[in-house]
Specification:
Two copies of one chain form a homodimer.
Chain A lengths: L1 H28 L6 H19 L3 H10 L5 H18 L3 H24 L2 H26 L3 H9 L5 H32 L11 H14 L7 E5 L5 E4 L2 E6 L7 H18 L16 H15 L3 H15 L5 H8 L16 H17 L7 H13 L26 H20 L3 H6 L4 H10 L9 H9 L5 H12 L2
Parallel strand pairs in A: 1-3
Antiparallel strand pairs in A: 2-3
Chain lengths: ~500, ~500
């Protein structure tokens, strides 16, 4: 029976992916510094095995045959994700993938060196090589999938997302934000004049911050028997659903950034820990995609963790662990601080989308051949000035050299961040309707009802629906920027 | 070229073994408790992949063909280890291995339950099943390797070791120890009467013990850029040569047991860290076997770590980290404490070999069919009385239910422990000749010359020689119990 063969294949791939996930998390947290070369060799060999097994030619026949078999609804859904996965995996010829991997890895290495020095001229030829291959890749994916080239790239990260649907929503959000950011900053200024900011600085022992983090993780639903918190240079959520590894980094002079980071990664972790167990070894059992994943992390960080109601419960918890007694009037201005800046990863929830929309617009033009890499510094600067009133023309490290995404050929990924923020706000709107006392629940440290809501509508669905379908099924309507705008207005516009 | 095919196979197997080693170490140190089931599934699937790839039928042809190719000396040695490895891997039919794995795993599970209760009657049928299959296994291995059945089992752990050579050496050691143990205990008693033991008890913070352990590891040669120390329930040395994971467990009321454990595991680690890099992905590049590995751990623990000269240097280091000032007369009686006991893993270096020789004798009879499992409690008790003057007849958990080795079908492994102790002493004799001021070096914290000696003669040789060949090449003579006896007499007999 062909379905059985695919099911067994799923177990083999799952074993390799389990190893890759744990080896990857281990590398960032516990590996000895000298272990990197052998680790890279081992992981690349394991990834090669996983790819060869998942992309073997006979699998196409198994999928065709399985579709004719007498399957239940879940199995049919599993087959359709096996097919989507297989097509996305096999639509590029092996020699192209090898060429692209080499080009991309050289560009990433060069980027690490050149970014620090702001050496755009030294970096440009490598980036040009990556873009040229990304255009080829988009073309090949487009033909295999029957999609437009940029859509075919996005399809890897968020199945079902299409520029035709996203671009107008982003356009709408952009015009809103270009006016809203200065207003929010003005409101913040007025408030600060009346109520000056009490600095959060102090000395917060790492071990106490860690205990606070673990207490918050557990409170919002992280299952500590199936996951852990450790330290890494860049925070991440990795591992496997039965053993989710989240990390943070601590500063001893300030606790809020680490705590918010832990809540963000906890949001990712909740999605992983609550995926359907029975489908764990099928593509169907994975989280839907990057935008949905980011919506879950941003929900915990922004809709829960920066919600004033949450802080009514959280302040005494912070005080208990850190021994410092803040009032709501002192903590909330930090939690809701807005600031124009050059760096996306440092941006707050008000300015962040403009960083993403800028990249979304530029990378569409790059893939379409309407923009060349050499023209990026000017194009970036022009949009940065128009959207945030800042210039990057003299500091390419703050402009097109800022992120690893382009050097590593991840075109089509950036939209996921802001789609995630919008989906999180849209979820919040739906939850406010279904659970009218949700804020009161947060204020008393109750997160079960909200987690049940998300488990039923999102987490338990795995990859059963496309991203737009899942948004609509979970929230009752298609992606709608109105919820995110309403959220920003309520929190920052008054 | 067939050698090339074997070389590439080596890289693939190495990647899987790398993953298995890190996943195994991770499981004991950092895995979330709920991660065990998925981890076991993933590891068993990866082990299956490694086995299928390493045991594929075409490999026999590659090895035959490679032997006819124009190879250098290293490559010829590599082929001969590829063949040894292949024959040992493939000499049991797959259906037998499956049956044995099931039987063994059931017996191990039962052992974990039954041991605590001392439930020999409940455990016996499962052990009988394992022994029956071990006899079959020994017969099949014997036919494939042209060896006697018990020798064929030992061959898995220590290639080249033969009962005909080991049994007389053990017999010699046993008669020595049966007299020596009471003498050593008498001498100890007399000394204690003159110089009462000052207890080592106190409160030693785990973090300080850890720093002391790391300082000692680094001093005796552990490369901290290619390995680490963490905590696990059972101490072990795992990981890969570029990232060796050693573990310990700490008691806060006593520091010596953890420190000695760390030195023991560091001995294993030094062997791994200093294996020949260029051969890392061939069977030739692995450590020679269990006896040689144990000889390296026991060398660091017993020949270095319990050497009075070492303590001249180590005492101030301990004082610096733990803040407690011991004199040599206070610490050495603890370092050299001898005590008759029922439990092998708790035994000191004087009594330990009698525990091993007892098991070596019994398991030979078990495999030969001269002894049945049902008769083990009586047979064990009789030997225990004769060798150590202790009885286990009423506590089978202290007798034949003591170790995991038999439930897990590892017959032929026990001799390695005492062979390791003898090889370590024999190495020490050879080193004393080659480095006459070795004790003075230890007393000033110098371990480089001893490590260079071991690196050249043992670590860098990988699996190039059989165990007896390696012993003779490294120390200038075949295995000889005289060195170990001399060592015990010098340390405990005066």
């Amino acid at each position: 029976m062909s379905f059985q063969k695919l099911d067994e294949l799923g177990h083999r791939i799952e074993a390799l992916n389990h190893a890759l996930a744990i080896l990857g998390a281990d590398e960032a947290t516990h590996m000895a510094p000298g272990g990197g070369e052998a680790r890279a060799e081992a992981m690349s060999a394991l990834a090669g095995m996983a790819h060869r097994q998942a992309a073997a030619p006979e699998i196409a026949d198994w999928i065709d045959a399985a579709e004719q078999e007498d399957l239940n609804g879940e199995q049919k859904a599993a087959i359709s994700e096996f097919r989507r996965n297989y097509v996305n995996l096999t639509c590029l010829p092996a020699d192209f993938v090898e060429r692209q991997t080499r080009t991309r890895m050289r560009c990433e290495q060069l980027w690490r060196e050149a970014r620090g020095k702001g050496d755009w001229a030294g970096f440009l030829p490598a980036l040009e090589g990556v873009i040229e291959l990304a255009r080829e890749e988009a073309q090949m994916r487009a033909e295999a999938l029957g999609l437009a080239p940029y859509d075919a790239l996005m399809e890897q990260f968020d199945p079902g997302n299409r520029t035709a649907e996203i671009a107008p929503v982003f356009e709408d959000l952009k015009s809103f934000l270009v006016d809203f950011v200065p207003n929010a900053l003005e409101i913040q200024k007025t408030k600060r004049a009346q109520n000056p900011l009490r600095p959060l600085s102090g000395h917060y022992a790492v071990e106490k911050q860690r205990e606070l983090g673990l207490a918050m993780m557990a409170a919002v639903g992280f299952d500590l028997t199936r996951g852990s918190l450790s330290v890494s240079h860049h925070p991440f959520c990795g591992g496997v659903p039965t053993d989710v590894r989240i990390t943070t980094r601590y500063r001893s002079d300030e606790f809020l950034s680490s705590l918010m980071g832990i809540l963000h990664e906890t949001g990712h972790a909740l999605y992983e820990q609550n995926l359907p167990k029975a489908w764990a070894h099928w593509p169907l059992g994975k989280a839907r995609g990057m935008a949905m994943h980011e919506s879950q992390s941003l929900f915990v960080e922004k809709q829960i963790g920066r919600n004033p109601a949450f802080w009514e419960w959280a302040l005494p918890v912070v005080a208990k662990h850190l021994g410092e007694d803040w009032s709501m009037d002192e903590i909330l201005p930090h939690v809701h601080h807005v600031e124009r800046g050059l760096i996306r990863v440092d941006a707050d929830e008000v300015t962040y989308p403009l960083h993403v929309i800028l990249r979304f617009e530029l990378e569409q033009d790059l893939i379409a051949g309407k923009l060349e890499a050499a023209d990026l510094p000017e194009a970036w600067d022009a949009k940065m000035k128009a959207y945030l009133g800042l210039s990057t023309i003299d500091t390419p490290q703050d402009g097109p050299m800022q992120d690893v995404h382009w050097p590593s050929a991840a075109f089509g990924y950036f939209p996921s961040y802001t789609l995630g923020a919008m989906i999180a706000a849209q979820q919040w709107s739906a939850i406010e309707k279904d659970i009218p006392d949700v804020n009161a629940q947060f204020a008393s440290g109750q997160f079960d009802a909200v987690n049940d809501w998300r488990r039923e509508r999102i987490w338990s669905q795995g990859s059963r629906w496309s991203t737009p379908e899942l948004i609509e099924r979970a929230t009752g309507e298609p992606l709608n920027a109105a919820h995110f705008k309403k959220h920003l207005e309520a929190r920052y516009g008054q």
